[in-house]
Each structure stands twice: as C-alpha cells, then as structure tokens.
C-alpha cells in the first residue's frame, strides 16, 4: 500500500451511505496490483479505482489506408481510472504521444457549427477583455487557425502554437502566425525569452489531450501577463456521466475533466477560476476563465457557483459518483447490437455518418464490423478513401448515401445530430431514418 492509500476510510464511509450499491461495486472495481501500479498524472497518488474499462481497441484517430488493411493493427487497453485524491479521471497511458499526433487528420474548420462557435467566441472575448492592436492573444493547439483568424481580422496580434506541422502550415497560409511545436514549460520559456506576454491565453479542447498536465498548465501560467486571462474549454465530466457518453473516451483523450479537478490543477499553478460558462459543444462543455490567484477569497461569478453546486450534488467529491459509471455502458452496447442484428435479419441496409473518434470507440467497443454496417460517410476529404480503425469500415463521400439509399443512417457523432439531419433531410424521400446509439438507441425522423 502506498503512502497515498487512503481507500479504506473512504470505502467505509461509502458503505455507511450506500451499503448495497457499494458492495456490488467492490466486486467490479478494478484494483491494481503492486506490480502494475499506476499513478495520477496530476498529483501522483496511486490510481486505485476504475472509472470505465472498454477493453482493447485501436487508436480512434488512426484511420487506415487500403494497404494497411492487410497488416496487423495494433490495439491498446482503453481504461479510464479516477484519482480519489484530486478526482482527476484519466485514461491509462499506453501510447507514445508521437503515435497519437503523428498524422492527425482533424481540421477544425470542417464543421459548420464549430466555425460559428469560434467566430462568436472571438467577438465576445475581444469586447469583454478590451483586446486591441496593443494586446497579445496566444492559442495553444491552434489547429488550422480557425479561431485566431477572427482576432487577426479584428487587428489583434496573435500567435498560434500547434503541434502538427502540416496543420500549422495551413494556418500560416491564411495569415495566422503559428509555431509548429508541442506546448509546455520549454515552449513557454522560449516564447517568454522572445518577449511574449499574453493578455489572453486560449486552450480550447486541448487540456484533455496533453500527456503531462502539470507541464502544460505551468506553461500556460508562464506566458500570461500579470493581469492576463486564461480561457479553457473542455468537455464536462458531469455531462459525460449523465449522458453515458462513454464513446468520448479514447486513447488520445487523456483526461475527463470536472470543474472540481480543474480548479485544483489550476490552483497548483497559481491560477484561480473566476468565471465558468456551460456550453452545448461536444455533448456539454465548460468554458473556464482564470487569472492569477490573489488570495484566499477569490471573487467568482454565479456561473462558477452553479457548476460547483451541480458537481457537489452529483457527489463528485465521493468515489461512488465515478465507480458506478461502468454500469451505464453495457445496456448501450447491447441496444445497438440488437438493433443492427435485427436490421440485418430484416434485410435492411445500414450506413454510418461521421468518421469521428467517438464513432470508433462505439463501434470497436461493440465489436461491430462490415457484417452489420456497410460503410461510413464523412465530409472530410482527408478521411475519405480510408477505413475506420478496428471495424475497417470504408469511409466514403456523403453523396454515397443518396446513391445507395440505406434504410438507416447511424449518426456516430451524436453531438452534431441536428446538423447532420438538417443537411440530409432528403434521406426521408426513400423512407430512410436516422439512428443514434448514445445515451440510448433512438430511431429519429
Ligand atoms: Zn490525483
């Protein structure tokens, strides 16, 4: 037992409160033996409790070429655990970062709703923080410049930091200065040495993807002006649990974040959250604003108080809130498999829509292949002509749906289901219907 091993008192307290439920979980909760002890990526405590174990799957963003179809495909355990000291939910580190980021096919600008989200965010922050030609905005994981280009248009100096060189080049080509490198303390020090000091540091949908969260957050704090603001967006763990969004768990996604855990992590780097907004993106996200901590009694908005209350009501400071999640997954897998098998038995054709990472988690956790779904379509030319990892379903152009007229279109990225349905309304002309599998199987339209 490690010096951090305080699980016995916690389990006793849990027993008093939820006796029967916890007894059932004592059997299911994965205990890690001394010889394979894993430690929290933030606080280094031993990770003793399982959040969800999804078996072994290929990397969710490793789309295959035709030549790779014939080669053995590596797969890795997909298992998220929770730290019972800082409540950080985290996936096991099983894959080197360069394998994850080597050929990252995601371009932010491909989704229309995302482009509008970015435009509004830039306009709002420019006004709220009085950004002008004397200000400096830095975005980490700035992708193809989808967000910073709006600041450039408003005359606000920007710098993007983006690990993928091919994507950084796209950003530069549209006038967004971008450094192609991983962000952390080393990069932050190099930028500060060059005189960079940021009024606004943006990290949207990147915090969950960084291998070393202390190195990353420390770097963010380093490049902020004394009165600078840090803005982070990340999918909210509360929504993941409530919506049974287990398919948002994949190897490239190291953390599943609550405000509780993020406030603890930021505080360790001298930062305090002063505002939180709840967003509908990615199934329910938080936008957190932080600045340097001033003292014991930080002033916070009602938004911060509301999310703190919601998380407390969900029991986020208690292990049961996390260890009961695995129970929500099995009925979803069974529901989707039963539907697809029945559709096959009835001679129906099924296509998938959206070659998203979450679709790969869903298909591969279910063990679905081309025996149950014919193909997947995606709007991204970078994915068309490739194959889904694991399931090996071919990825085709969206027009293929109108040529083959499937009976069912399974929308894999359920978070954009309204957009997918609205741009593909004519599917109903031949009686086709849309299906989503999470949080439960639903046939729409
Ligand atoms: Zn921890």
TrEMBL record:
Keywords: Methyltransferase, Transferase
GO BP terms in the entry: methylation
Matching CDD domains: AdoMet_MTases (cd02440)
Alphabetized GO MF terms: methyltransferase activity
One Pfam match: Methyltransf_23
Region (Disordered): 1-23
Organism superkingdom: Bacteria
Limits of the C-methyltransferase domain: 280-439
Domain Methyltransferase putative zinc binding per the UniProt entry, residue ranges: 40-101
Protein name per its UniProtKB record: Class I SAM-dependent methyltransferase
Species: Novosphingobium kalidii
């Amino acid at each position: 037992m490690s010096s951090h091993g305080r699980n016995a008192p916690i389990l006793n307290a849990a027993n008093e409160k939820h006796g029967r439920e916890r007894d059932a979980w004592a059997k299911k909760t994965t205990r890690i033996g001394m010889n394979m002890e894993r430690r929290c990526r933030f606080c280094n405590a031993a990770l003793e409790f399982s959040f969800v174990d999804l078996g072994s799957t290929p990397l969710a963003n490793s789309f295959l070429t035709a030549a790779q179809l014939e080669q053995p495909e590596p797969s890795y355990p997909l298992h998220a655990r929770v730290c019972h000291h800082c409540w950080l939910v985290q996936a096991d580190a099983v894959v080197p970062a360069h394998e994850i980021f080597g050929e990252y096919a995601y371009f932010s600008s491909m989704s229309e709703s995302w482009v509008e989200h970015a435009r509004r965010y830039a306009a709002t922050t420019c006004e709220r923080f009085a950004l002008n030609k004397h200000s400096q905005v830095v975005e980490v994981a700035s992708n193809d410049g989808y967000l910073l280009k709006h600041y450039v248009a408003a005359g606000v100096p920007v710098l993007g930091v983006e690990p993928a060189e091919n994507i950084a080049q796209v950003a530069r080509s549209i006038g967004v200065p971008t450094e192609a490198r991983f962000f952390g303390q080393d990069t932050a020090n190099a930028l500060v040495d060059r005189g960079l000091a940021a009024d606004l540091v943006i990290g949207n949908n990147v915090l969950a993807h960084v291998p070393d969260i202390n190195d990353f957050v420390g770097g963010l704090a380093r490049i902020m002006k004394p009165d600078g603001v840090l803005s982070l967006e990340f999918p909210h763990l509360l929504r993941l649990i409530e919506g049974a969004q287990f398919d948002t768990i994949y190897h490239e996604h190291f953390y599943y974040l609550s405000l509780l855990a993020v406030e603890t992590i930021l505080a360790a780097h001298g930062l305090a959250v002063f505002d939180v907004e709840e967003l509908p993106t990615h199934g329910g996200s938080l936008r957190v604003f932080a600045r340097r901590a001033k003292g014991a009694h930080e002033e916070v908005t009602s938004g911060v108080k509301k999310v703190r209350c919601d998380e407390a009501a969900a029991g986020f400071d208690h292990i049961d809130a996390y260890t009961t999640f695995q129970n929500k997954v099995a009925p979803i897998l069974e529901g989707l498999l039963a539907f697809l098998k029945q559709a096959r038995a009835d001679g129906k054709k099924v296509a998938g829509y959206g070659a998203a990472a979450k679709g790969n988690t869903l298909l591969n956790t279910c063990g679905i292949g081309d025996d149950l779904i014919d193909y997947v379509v995606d709007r991204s030319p970078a994915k068309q002509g490739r194959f889904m990892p694991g399931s090996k379903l071919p990825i085709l152009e969206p027009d293929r749906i109108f040529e083959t007229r499937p009976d069912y279109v399974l929308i894999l990225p359920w978070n954009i289901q309204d957009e997918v349905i609205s741009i593909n309304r004519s599917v109903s002309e031949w009686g086709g219907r849309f299906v989503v599998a999470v949080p439960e199987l639903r046939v729409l339209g």
